[in-house]
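Sample intake sheet
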Amino acid sequence: MTTKLLNKRGSDRGLTMTFSVDRSPKEVFDAINNVRRWWSEEIDGSTDKLGATFTYRYKDMHRSNQTITELVPHEKVAWHVSDSQLNFFRDKGEWDGTDIVFEIARKGDGTELRFTHVGLVPALECYGACEKGWGHYIKNSLRSLIKTGEGHPDRKEEEAGKKAA
């Protein structure tokens, strides 16, 4: 049974990205749940337990709290964004009440990953910037983590400062 997620705007639509890799559904599932290796090293909290809440931070520009609402091994991961602050937009809470969903499916010898940020729609101010950001994290960093074991997450601020020096 598939649950249809509706966000606070009553929509099941959102920003969707799909890619295929020559890896198993287990490898894809494990990589998604290793959020610090593909999204950000600045994650506080558990990212691989049903019901857990974790916080993403990017400098003083973006903070969001995600609760893991679905964790179906090798098939699906879903997070509910309960609170967000995107300081570079008028409506700083545009992500509030949205859902971030990863659907994993075996396709031939490989695996297809379908990412949807449910509720992130073109009518929102952050859509364009968030589409670009998610494009980097999903199609570049997560895909790289799955294929090579090395993602491209945001680094911790003190580490980023050391590399710049």
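Comment: Residues 17-164 form a domain with the Alpha-D-Glucose-1,6-Bisphosphate; Chain A, domain 4 fold (CATH 3.30.530.20). The helical segments are 25-32, 127-148, 157-164.
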